[in-house]
Amino acid sequence: MAWPDGSPAWPPPPSGGGLPVLELDPPTYTTPSAGDYVIGGYHDFDGVDERIDFGRITACEVTTGSEWTVSLWAKRTGSQNVFFSIADAQNRIVIYENTTNQLAVNFRLANQNYNVSRNSVLLSDWVHIFVISDGSDLSLYIDGSLVAFNSTSGTYPTATQTWTASTRVRIGAISTGFYASAQIAEVAMWSTDQSANVAAIYNSRARHDLMDLTTPPDLFYAPLTSYGDDPGSGGSVAELVANNDGSGVNMETADAVIPTPTTVTSTLTKALDIATSVVTSTKVEEVPSGGGGTGSSFP
User: Fold this and answer.
1) Which residues pair with 72 in a beta bridge?
2) Which of 109, 113, 115, 144 would disulfide-bridge 161, Cβ 3.0–4.6 Å?
């Protein structure tokens, strides 16, 4: 059997029909950078008078020589920010950006005041901040990696302390006059040293419900619907621990942002896209009519 031009039926002539010709050009993917990474949900603080109050949470009231861990995500929109605080008149833990734009931690018990800070933390992008006390000193992890403090002042507190009824846990402020101009997300605190679980908590920059961890935090904050939690009052603040809802002070509902991710990283999605690329770029040419063909064509 021969083709109409007299050439053999097999192999097919260069310009004729035959088997499908694959023209595969799979899509390319990029890993999210710090600049375009988006948390599952966050609150946007205006730097003027907005904060989230939780009142007194006794599990967060550390004692002399005790261990504790604070984890949060932050992205600055202005300078001199207070990201997280637990404080009364004599005692406090504050994670903040100081007047020289260093990331700093202030830990005070009674009259013993300890302050540490770190240069060159790019808070203009989303940054994961992880502060740990092992009972004798503080450690700082940035984006899952241990970093050194550039400066310290005072000594790690060893004084006996008693937290008072005026103790307040806050996000975005420490007290009137000290506010955050920043976006803050997934604030958590443990009354234990969680340094062994840094990787699991950081989770390679992926959205993560910390309450699903083997050791869940004593405090966990996320905006309403970010993890399906119940709302608190004012500004759609999610349920934390033991139904202790936060209260948004001067917060607006629009300040709780639940963004839509725009970067594709799923292996399954990649496979589906590649398969789609194969199907849509495959060419099956029409079999010529006459001699050896049926005259039909494939769609």
Assistant:
1) 129
2) 109
Write the DSSP symbol of residue 121: -
Residue 106, token pair as written in the block: 């202030």
Contact in structure between 190 and 210 (CB atoms under 8 Å): no
**DSSP bridge partners of 112:** 109
User: Greatest CA separation found in the chain?
Assistant: 101
Convert the pLDDT of each residue in 62-104 to its tens digit.
887 789 999 999 999 988 899 999 999 899 999 999 888 899 9
- CA dist 5 and 288 (Å) reads 11
User: What is the CATH topology of the domain spanning 42-257?
Assistant: Jelly Rolls (2.60.120)
Sequence ranges of the domains in the chain:
42-257
The strand pair at 256-257 and 42-44 is best described as antiparallel
pTM, two decimals, is: 0.72
Q: Over 60: is that where the pLDDT of 19 sits? A: no
Q: Who's near 245: CB < 8 A, 6+ residues apart?
A: 54, 230, 231, 232, 233, 237, 238, 239
Which residues pair with residue 107 across a beta bridge? 93, 114
| Amino acid 33: pLDDT | 54
Query: Which ranges of the chain does DSSP label H, i.e. alpha helix?
Result: 198-202, 267-281
How far is C-alpha 243 from the chain's CA centre? 23
